[in-house]
Each structure stands twice: as C-alpha cells, then as structure tokens.
Specification:
Blueprint (H helix, E strand, L loop, with lengths): L1 E4 L5 E4 L3 E5 L17 E9 L3 E8 L3 E8 L2 E5 L4 E4 L3 E6 L4 E7 L5 E8 L9 E6 L10 E6 L6 E3 L4 E7 L4 E4 L5 E9 L2 E3 L2 E3 L4 E5 L3 E5 L3 E9 L2
C-alpha cells in the first residue's frame, strides 16, 4: 500500500525569514490525526533566507537529522561543535538529556534543507553530534545509506531502529527499493518529478508505504530521501 501526499497539501508556514512545509503536526500546526508516522515524528521542508536562521534553542529526547539541499548551513551547539555544511551533507544530533544549538544561514543565497526528527529508543541518553559530507557519485542512480541503527558500520548511527537513504537520479533512469516484512517507508521527493508505483510525484511530494516495494521512474533529474523503519 502506498499513500501519495502532494506538496501543496502540506501545512505552509511563512515567517518571512523562514518558509516551511510541515509533513506532521509541528509548532503552530496542530493535527491529532497527523502526529507521526511510526518513529518519524517531524519532517519539515525549510527554506532559510540569507543572513537569518534559528537562534540558540534547546531540545531533549529526540534524534534530529538535517539534509542540506542548497546553500550552506552553519551549526553551533552547547557541546562545542561548530561547522558549515553544503549540498548533500547530513547533520545528526541526538538531543538526549538536553542540548542547545543554533542553525544559521550566514551566506548570500537561501538555504534549503529537510529536517527530520526521529523518536529515540530510550529517553535520557547522552547527547551527541555528527555530520558527514558525501561524494555526489555515491548517490548517483543508487541508494546511499546515510543513517542507521546504533552499531552499523560506515554510516551515522542513531538511537533507533531506522534507516535513511538518498539518491539522485538521472532523467529516464529507474530505481527500486525492496521493503522487508514488518517495515514501512516514508519517501520525500526533494527535487524533480517522476513516477513512483504508477503515481506521478511532483517536487516536494511525499508518500507513506507499507507491504509494497518501491519502483521509481525519473521523468526529470530527481533527488529523493527515504526513511525506513518498523511498521507501526
């Protein structure tokens, strides 16, 4: 089963310096029927204007993952981490017992990012931060494994049984994803348009999927994020 979620059906928040689309109930958007999808609690499609950003603010008991699509995002936190990340980079922060951070666009062009929050397996875990910059070739017409459960080698580990993948597809290329029994997927078309399981997806569209493998046909260059997790 696959449920197509058009981008224009998502809640839109425009704060001037920040334009967001919320996939799930968040901030001023309250919807008891759309609180989460399995362990995926938040997915925000954010565009941050130049020389603005999120000031220092706290979090706890959440796995926060940010994927940068364009521009350069500058991070600072109470653990002493400070860095800037560009297109195709991923940033991970386990808020655990508590951490404060800021996310700024110090450049002259907008920053476009996808922010996801995943519920941790336990509360009151030790906070930590990580990031990685990947070669674009590693996600070219194939799935690149970005995030995995604790202990998985060669990827960023999180405190939850969930995985994140990304791909950039050439026009007219195809790619599948096999969904294992007892698992479910959330798919985000970040850029481009294509056909997923016989339904046409436009830029920004998403989908929930259970009990069905994915088959993607790119109608243009596409950039897709996928989160795999236990079936709720």
């Amino acid at each position: 089963m696959i449920i197509h979620i058009p981008f224009n059906s998502l809640y839109a928040a425009n704060h001037g310096w920040l334009q967001s689309r919320f996939h799930f109930s968040f901030a001023e958007y309250h919807d008891r029927e759309n609180m989460h999808f399995g362990v995926l609690r938040v997915m925000n499609d954010d565009i941050i204007a130049p020389h603005t950003g999120f000031g220092t603010h706290p979090h706890h008991d959440m796995e926060i993952i940010t994927y940068v699509l364009s521009g350069e995002l500058t991070h600072q936190d109470s653990m002493g981490n400070a860095e800037s990340l560009g297109r195709g980079s991923i940033q991970y922060m386990s808020a655990g017992t508590g951490v404060s951070h800021s996310e700024k666009n110090e450049g002259d062009v907008p920053v476009h990012l996808i922010q996801t929050w995943i519920l941790p397996s336990h509360k009151a875990l030790a906070p930590r931060y990580g990031s990685k910059v990947f070669d674009a070739k590693a996600r070219h017409n194939q799935w690149l494994h970005l995030i995995a459960p604790e202990g998985t080698p060669d990827v960023i580990s999180i405190y939850q049984d969930a995985n994140m993948f990304v791909t950039e597809l050439d026009p007219n290329s195809t790619l599948g994803f096999t969904l294992k029994a007892g698992r479910q997927l959330y798919v985000k078309v970040m850029e481009g348009r294509g056909v997923i399981n016989n339904s046409v997806f436009e830029p920004g569209d998403a989908a929930k999927a259970w009990d069905e493998n994915l088959f993607i046909e790119a109608l243009s260059a596409m950039h897709i994020l996928l989160i795999e997790m236990p079936k709720a």
